[in-house]
Design goal:
The complex is a heterodimer. Chain A is mainly α. Chain A has seven helices and no strands. In chain A, helix 2 runs parallel beside helix 4, helix 5 packs antiparallel against helix 6 and helix 5 packs across helix 7. Classes of the chains: A mainly alpha, B mainly alpha. At the A-B interface, helix 1, helix 5 and helix 7 of A face helix 2, helix 3 and helix 4 of B.
């Protein structure tokens, strides 16, 4: 996991997972009713069908935001790209989303991503592995925060010198101070 | 600034030095000083010992690799807003 690209990809998964969880847990149907699929226009229905094909179900927050079809379309494009396999597998991405949802106490996200993990073939042992990691690091982090420990392990990872996708490698610094 | 004084490795008993060696091996990194968390967990081996074993069991390769689990651990730490 040395390349930054892997961590950008993981961060996108965490961010968009949280985005879905916020709407699902914060806006239950009695607060903001989801759009009835029968009321959706043709384009929105096409997006909903794509979501169903991806998950095997239509997670509630997509129907909640479907009242604005263009917003739904862009949100779905981001979610789809975030969870599609690039450098990380979909299976690992669902594990990350499950762990983040569990840690942030999202009942919606925990259920959705647990179901997705199982759908992708992860067994009970694998689920327990993710639960164990989430639980143990929820312990370490709170111990560190309670004692206000300063990070002393951040620099053990190597620095990735590669540029942003499509970009150029930065020239090495001359070490000269900048002119102000 | 820590709320407690994090003791130097030399202030720990012999048994803890073994834990610090295990910590080096776990991270595959030759720390000048054991990480603060290792020293915190070595304060009371009756807590730190089983906690460390549970962590190692959780992080051991299984259906997910150790590297994948390190990433899960990182996102959990992020979700807990922990900078350590």
């Amino acid at each position: 996991m040395k390349e930054d690209a892997l961590w950008y990809e993981a961060a996108y998964v965490v961010g968009i997972t949280n985005a879905l969880n916020v709407v699902a847990d914060g806006l239950p149907p009695d607060v903001l009713p989801p759009l009835a699929e029968s009321a959706a226009d043709v384009q929105t229905r096409a997006v909903i069908d794509e979501i169903r094909a991806f998950y095997g179900e239509v997670p509630a927050p997509f129907l909640t935001v479907a009242r604005d079809p263009r917003y739904l379309s862009d949100l779905w494009a981001a979610v789809r790209h975030g969870f599609d396999e690039h450098r990380l597998t979909r299976r690992l991405k669902e594990a990350l989303a499950f762990a983040v949802s569990l840690t942030s106490r999202s009942a919606f996200g925990t259920r959705l991503h647990l179901a997705q993990l199982r759908r992708l073939g992860v067994g009970e042992g694998g689920v327990m592995e993710v639960v164990g990691v989430a639980q143990m690091f929820s312990s370490y982090t709170k111990i560190a925060d309670t004692l206000q420990l300063a990070s002393d392990m951040g620099d053990i990872a190597p620095v990735d010198p590669t540029p942003a996708p499509g970009g150029r490698v930065a020239r090495p610094s001359t070490g000269r101070p900048r002119r102000t | 600034m820590p709320t407690v004084r994090i003791r130097n490795a030399s202030e720990y008993p012999e048994a803890a030095q073994k834990l610090f060696d295990l910590s080096k091996a776990w991270f595959a990194h030759d720390f000048a000083d054991p990480p603060a968390m290792s020293r915190v967990m070595a304060w009371d081996p009756e807590f730190g010992g089983p906690h460390g074993r549970a962590m190692k069991r959780a992080m051991a390769p299984g259906e997910f690799t150790r590297a994948e689990k390190e990433m899960v651990a990182a996102v959990v730490s992020g979700a807990n807003a922990c900078r350590y």
